[in-house]
Amino acid sequence: MKKLSIILSIVMATAISGCTEADFSENYANPSKVSTATVEKQFAGMLVANKDYVLPAYWNYFVVLRTTLTRYTQAVGWVNTSNQYVPGEAGIGGRWGNYYDFLAQYRELEKIYNNLTPEEQADLRVYMLTATIYLYDHTQKVVDLHGDIPFSEAGRLSQNGGDYLNSLPAYDTAESIYTTMLDGLKAYSDELNSINVSAGIMVGFQTQDFVNGGDLSAWKKYCNSLRLRMLTRVSGVSEFQSRAQSEIAAILANPGQYPLVEENSENIQIDVVSLDTPINSKGFRSGLEDWDGNLAGKAMIDHMLDNTDPRLRAMYEPGEFAGSDYSGLDPLLNENDQTTLVATGTLSRYNRSTLSRNEYFPGLLFTAAEVSLLKAEYYLNASNDAMAQASYEDAIEKSTEFYYGLRDLSADGTAIDLVPTNDTEIQAYIGSTDVNWDNATTDDEKLSLIATQKWIHFSVLQLPDSWAEQRRLNLPDFSFQVDNANEQTLPPSRWIYPNSERVYNTDNYNTVSGEDNLTTKLFWDVN
């Protein structure tokens, strides 16, 4: 049913705008046209607005991530260059601009919804609940890149009647945005348990919702899993500690009331069901592979080899002239030695048939493995070692299943056929020296195990979350070549704001300009 609903939503979305992606986007972005939109159409338009930052697309991978988060997380190998840790304006500006286009779409949805009668609003409430959950997921990602951002007043140009000067938004603190989102998600999780959607409205919702196909149980799991992620992110901050502990405990103790993504079949993702629609992953290939972007990093390859990780052959393939040997690029080598090594064709790369040339690769939002790792950290901090271990080992099993499942989606035959894994191989990895829970004798060592599995699972697929978790935990502990040619000698603590904020939102930008540097830590980065 979900796949059918997604196909219908794609057909309707393209039909609305003359069957082209560009026209479809314009239909929702142009204030002169949105007056004819409905809640249902605007909901779909909002989902489409940021699809290229959910589905793996060229611009995001090549321009935004290739020289920033893939390096900061050592998810890839790269040749060291001067200025290599400073994020480029094109990537920052493009990512920022897309988020605020997306937020403007949400504000249009608010505007349309608020102009309805109370009876109509009650009928269509499901659209606002789910749209806001989706908005908060992507708002968290932008906050975690920059810190304070315009939010509560942002995207309201159309709501303000086109008054440009009165629509320049002030900055909200990152803490206040997190508080707003956590308050909202808690309320929405309860409301979704009691919401009554009429059969007629549900038909339309299933058509427009190409994230979860109108499945309310999936939206509940998405909502509560997102709560779990956000609460964990702020759990080390004194002002949030009590709330994080009590709310995570309530979520985990009441799975009927607060269900989570527990199985890979429940993963929250945008499925690609037809390559003839704009909902596809065709840009993943050039985005990841161009300009030697698809090189394995030494740290991840070494860990997988040393512990015989069954995900290795699903995630990676040997270099063209490496035979069956896997190897990754050492970030501590000098540029000349790295360049020479790259030219040999012996370095491993991410498996092209599983990832970059898999045109059916889904747009990932939440996976069961991440939920298990979040649980493991909570139980570890709560001194429940048995549950922490069980969740940790479950995450490894789920992650392995996940990567082999990605290959099953692929129609690409570039890489050699993938030899299936089995439980014996998975359990051997779980019991290996650097993975075995019982070999860790302190809580810090156990947290390092959890963090390492997050890093492997996220790889190049969930880079904003991977970088956020590494900054929050200072784990895994990586070594980087120091860039003495630039003031920013190592990976930054945050992204700076795009130049457009200095130029067009000057007065509001000036209130945060003092923290606009690459070294200011986010509020949850307390380690």
Automatic annotation (TrEMBL):
Keyword Signal: yes
Secretion signal, residue range per the UniProt entry: 1-22
Pfam families: SusD-like_2 (PF12771)
Origin: domain of life: Bacteria
Keyword terms of this UniProt record: Signal
Keyword RNA-binding in record: no
Protein name per Swiss-Prot or TrEMBL: SusD-like starch-binding protein associating with outer membrane
